[in-house]
Amino acid sequence: MTTLDPQLDESMCHLDKLPHVEWDSSCPESSRCTFPDGLSPLECQMAGHPFDGVKHTIGMLRRPNGHVLKPATKAILGEREIAFYENLQTSQDPTTTQLRSFVPCYYGTTELRIFNKRTKFLTLKDITEDMAEPCVMDIKIGRRTWDPLATPEKRATEEFKYAESKRAYGFCITGFQVYCLSSGRLKKFDRDYGKKLDAKGVVEALETFLNITPEKPACRQLITKLLSILCQIMLFFRTQRQYRFYSSSLLVAYDAQRLRRCPPDDEDPDNRIESSNRTDVSDASKEIATSHLSSVASVPAERTAKRSRTEMPANPLQRSVSLSTGFVETIDNEKLPNQSGSCSSDAKADCRLYRPSGPVTTETKYECDWVRVNMIDFTHVFPADDDGSLDLNYLEGIENLIKLLKSFISRKLDRENFCIGVKL
To answer: Considering the entire predicted model, what is its pTM?
Structure first.
């Protein structure tokens, strides 16, 4: 069932009354388009086709209320993605309920008349809402990006695109934008840039996106927040056997303005990594907060101090250890769970899960969290086979992404230890 966007009157269901997007024929660029109802092109769109009056391509739109409109221009694929979101809203299946935590909020569909044709849009939550300087990266997960229905021609095309980065890491970067801390300038890197990236280029792209330079190493707070969300998604894929995700992406966003205000790591009150353990990356990773999967994925849990419970302030983020579920994991454990969904005893012993003691409110989410990750693009999601296996294609990509982010922390710790040694 497709729902109607509440911001459009029901009388607009006829083609001649649909709000219309018009181009100035003398200047086809999207900047010269006229959009109704306060709509405007989504400036931080990192993948897919943008608005183009010459090629008649339709891009994403943004409303000032924090919603974005994603076009469903291809009938079959568009309806498949709409059905995916509709099912997420209504399903009571435990796996689907967990998955709902990782995707943008869905508000139904709306329609516009573009190029004199009726075009349907999905209405979704804008991941960059309230961000002053949004840095956004689209990361397509999986070495295989073609689905079971792909023709041989489509399969060959997909295997050729982003081949080097997919071969090296099982994911590819399709585009990103970043506000550089040093200059304040906005830089954009499109899909043509992403298609040229090899293994080394992927690392350099991530460094650029995270504002890592020789003069300014990685911000541990930023990377820790990213890892806390990504590990929740990884743990979900280490247990779910219901879906296969092809050509699906992770949309990663953070606010560069908030990054500017982050104190140096040695002055960060939330940085509780003991100096005696800094030579070991695994000790650093133990500080990564991984909330329980039942909490909202876009609201990463904060790290807590290594203190006893009696010393904790009111309503703290309490650390707990779960040994009975398949979600037990430590970031340094590279082993997949067995087919029953449980992890090894060694993994359980090292695992630490961080869980809020109270519910996470919407106010907390949008006032305090400046780092967000959403799973997006579900036109190629299919039911899993009956063999009960994991989606190893997706797992490989997200695990390698996590390893790369961890390496930035490792590099920073090595540098800090070297500086300490020089001073001594």
So the answer is: 0.74
